Amino acid sequence: MLYPTTSQTVGPYLHIGLSGLNCADLTAGLPHLEATAIVIEGRVTDGQGNPVPDGMVELWQADARGVYRHPDDPGFASAESQSASFTGFGRVPTEPDGSFRFTTIKPGPVAGPDGSQQAPHLVVSLFMRGLLKHLSTRMYFPDETRANEQDWILSKVPAARRETLIAHDTGSGILRWNVVLQGSGETVFFDI
């Protein structure tokens, strides 16, 4: 008979065994991607505004045509070779100041329920010391106002909190998206 064991957090040793999968540049070695590289920078802070220096940020996304590199995506089987080489997966540790940075491409819209389209987005997971389970959220793009308004998940988020899921264009070719774990301006997290 198996007995339940005590809960364990995802840290403080979450980097051991995981750092080999770190990937900050999802476009590296892919010169033929038919999409422009974008940079996403941000910072993870706790409820008091202090940086989270020992976290890990993961993202999973579709390619520029809205196809995930996964056999369950109907478009994957017919994906062109450029799509097959774009993994859509990135992982970086947070820096001592809580910052993180990815280079990737903007994903295309993906299918939603009942034939609808989801706005282009990144699926984001956060791991850090003290958490019993990773946090799940999304990052949406600021230049997709209409698609964001019609997105079936974003539309379920209270209007006053939607901005926590939308990156900001810095005007310098970098998108800025901060993650606030608690308190004022807390990022919306999903229970999945």
UniProtKB/TrEMBL annotation:
Q: What is a GO molecular function of this protein?
A: protocatechuate 3,4-dioxygenase activity
Give the Intradiol ring-cleavage dioxygenases domain ranges.
Answer: 40-68
What keywords are annotated for this sequence in UniProt? Dioxygenase, Oxidoreductase
- Which InterPro entries does the protein's record reference? Intradiol_dOase_C (IPR000627), Intradiol_dOase_core (IPR015889), Intradiol_RC_Dioxygenase (IPR050770), Protocat_dOase_a (IPR012786)
Q: In the Enzyme Commission scheme, what number(s) does this protein have?
A: 1.13.11.3
Gene3D superfamilies per record = Aromatic compound dioxygenase
User: What Pfam family does this protein match (any one)?
Assistant: Dioxygenase_C
Q: Which family does it belong to?
A: Belongs to the intradiol ring-cleavage dioxygenase family.
Q: State what protein this is by name.
A: Protocatechuate 3,4-dioxygenase subunit alpha
Recorded source organism is Achromobacter seleniivolatilans
Gene (UniProt) = pcaG
